[in-house]
Amino acid sequence: MKYRSEIDGLRALAVIPVILFHAGIKPFAGGFVGVDIFFVISGYLITTILFSEMEDDRFSIVNFYERRARRIVPALFFVILCCLPFSWIWLSSSDLKDFSQSLMAVVSFSSNILFWHESGYFETAAELKPLLHTWSLAVEEQYYIVFPLILLLLWKLRRRWIFCAIFAAAMLSLIAAQWGAYNIPSAAFFLLPFRFWELAIGALIALYLQYRPAQPNLLSQSRKTRELLGLIGLSLIFYSIFSFDKATPFPSLYALAPTLGTGLIILCSTTETWVSKILSTKPLVGIGLLSYSAYLWHQPLFVFARHQHHGTPKLSTLLTLCLVSLALAYLIWRFVEIPFRNKNLFTRKRIFNLTLCGSLALAIAGYTGHANEGFTGRVSLEKRKIEAFRRYDFASFYRLGDCFLRQEQTYADFSSACYDGSISDRAMIWGDSHAAALSYGLSQNATELIQITSGSCPPLVGLTLDKQQTCTDINDFALKTIETYLPQKIYLHANWLLYQNEEIIKNNAALTGYLQSTLREIAKRSPNSEVSVVGGVPQWEKSLPDVLIKKSLKVDQTINLPLEKKTYHALTHIDTALKACTTEAEATFVSPLELLCVADLCPAVIGEQGAFSPTAWDYGHLTAEGSVLLADKVETRAENLMTPAKIKLVQGTPPPEAPSPAPSRF
User: Fold this and answer.
1) Quick check: helix, strand or coil at residue 598?
2) Does one domain contain both 374 and 401?
3) 553-566 burial, b for 16+ CB within 10 Å, e for fewer?
4) Of 378, 407, 440, which residue constitutes the final position of a domain?
């Protein structure tokens, strides 16, 4: 296969955005598409090699797997070995247990399946998992195991069917990805069936160029056409890097931008085009040669830095680590990757022995760490008490899956346990995960509560979240519930700050506009309901348990801690806007900051007589104790401002008839 330097330049264009994305550099919010670029490149290169060898009748599946092992295993195992001592020193017991489990998944090339299973709404953040990035290696390895065998079978049976068969499989995969991105987003993101089409784009380009060796461009030999198509491809890649973000459904039709962009560059950028010349420059080619090792290094470096800082390190630290990852990548490339590709130094037998023995050793290490619960004896008892809240069992308190829906669930999944038809003196809470957290405290009093809550779905009628039709349907369902049950008291609560930080709502005027629409819709359906809007709860810069650990505090007494000034001012600013809106609409506004805090000093640990607990188990989601504390104060304040209402957990009757879902965007 003829070397194409622009392919290495494309690798640089893939790995740099990925690293900057994981560093949290905001302009590169779509940098995750670098993985999709890698998929297309891999599909192209592997198919080109396989097709050439099959044409020359020299294909060997053993040779193929040997090359893959030489390319992937040595650098991967070396980086993992370097991670082991730092994981032992810096990771908590629960995190070390997870890391140990990921070791077993990585060596079996199934880490994408593991991380799919771990991708629940409140699971450990991606930035705290050292080996999370290996999911893409697992996808590629699964592809490498299956694809050559299928290609060989088609080659022997119906050679002319190869292109059509791959194209048909790619279309089915793309359709599945489009559906999955909206209905089962975690599975669609991590699993091969939903990613196959991206690798297949590269494979189809390789087959096209093999069938048309004298015409390596898209239907034309015109240089202007090649220049234009190459520039379009480059523009599509840059557009996706700088325009996409974590709210973009992926890998849906949106993923066509970076993948087709990459395909156009591979197809059209011959040596004389400007795009090829740019991608073939020495700096980009050099980074491209290091791209695999740089990809392996960057995630562990960022993760260990975050663990050391108990949160997000300074920007300067993260940028320094970006450079460190490239420096380490050079060393691994020079002293690990290149030597292991030398068949005179490392024979096939040695490579396979290294792969087998290394995999067994790491799997045993992983099993041992997981079976021993992350070796809890490494940390003090007090620290273990706090660490336990990082894996807080919130599901039963929030009624996860029944009255607090996961992101992949729809309004039809609300359980009948969320409703009751026999009591007229009832209340209702409507909102996102913060509302679900508050619902537990409200439910502890001796009356009835209807709970309509869903992750990342604020109670704002008319707000269309980024490509999330589900939230619109849930809010319509909440209004139908109000119309059916006529609750005496209604609480609207959400992490209001989140939706501005994510630029879903551009400013306070827009926020209050949506809230006014919501209050009007409630008044139409249940004019006698007493509506309370609950402001944002105290939010910590980092996870509250991490804050306590960093400050070496113990959960054996009540503790008040200051919020970060920037966060406190943002919360009070939104409170002011919400209060003005509710006053105009003759509703009630209740501020958790006013109820719980003295200025910016807020309760971090509460309790009495030896039973103490943090008020939140992450940045702001309330523990059961925190929920009871806030709910009591919210109810008291609301009762002072409105007609008293009784509150109790409602169970028993079927939900009201749900509204018809709005049509999908695609």
Assistant:
1) strand
2) no
3) bebeeebebebeee
4) 378
Measured CA to CA, the distance from residue 477 to residue 483 in angstroms comes to: 10
Task: Transcribe 92-139 into DSSP letters.
Answer: -HHHHHHHHHHHHHHHTT-HHHHHHHT--TTSPPGGG-TTGGGHHHHH
Q: Looking at the structure, do residues 365 and 424 belong to the same domain, yes or no?
A: no
* Same domain as 582, residue 442: yes
| pLDDT in the model for residue 217 | 46
CATH number at residue 418: 3.40.50.1110
What are the 10-residue block averages of pLDDT along the chain, 666 residues in total?
Answer: 90 98 93 98 96 90 94 97 95 91 96 89 71 97 94 86 94 97 91 98 92 54 82 97 91 97 90 88 97 98 89 89 98 96 93 96 97 86 81 90 87 84 75 96 81 94 72 93 92 91 65 91 93 96 86 84 93 93 88 95 87 91 95 88 42 41 30
Among 15, 486, 44, residue whose Cα is nearest residue 262: 44
Q: How far apart are CA 310 and CA 546, in angstroms?
A: 6
Q: What is the pLDDT of residue 662?
A: 34
In a domain? residue 654: no
Is residue 54 one of the residues assigned to a domain? yes
DSSP state of 417: G
Are residues 241 and 322 both part of a single domain?
yes
pLDDT, residue 160, reads: 82
Range of the domain at 281: 5-378
CA 153 to chain centre: 37
> Could you tell me if residue 288 is left (phi over 0), alpha (psi between -120 and 50 degrees) or otherwise beta?
alpha
pTM of the full structure: 0.82
**Tokens standing for 57?**
């009748």
Q: Do 352 and 417 share a domain, yes or no?
A: no
User: CB neighbours of 569 closer than 8 A, spacing ≥ 6?
Assistant: none
- Could you give the dihedral angle defined by the CA atoms of residues 10, 15, 20 and 24, in that order, rounded to the nearest 10 degrees? 120
Asked if 357 and 409 sit in the same domain, the reply is no
Q: Which neighbouring-strand residues pair with 609?
A: none
Give the span between the Cα atoms of 569 and 269, in whole angstroms.
51
Give residue 491's identity as a one-letter amino acid code: Y
Per-residue HEC secondary structure of 367-397 comes to HHHHHCCCCHHHCCHHHHHHHHHHHCCCHHH
CB contact burial 359-375 (16+ within 10 A = b; e otherwise): beebbebbeebbeeebe
Q: Is residue 548 part of a domain?
A: no
SS3 state of residue 534: strand
Per the document, the length of the chain is: 666
116 shares its domain with 219: yes
Token representation of residue 342? 């030398």
Asked if residue 515 and residue 490 are part of one domain, the reply reads yes
Query: How many structural domains does the chain have?
Result: 2
Q: Does a structural domain hold residue 549? A: no
Q: What single-letter amino acid sits at 623?
A: T
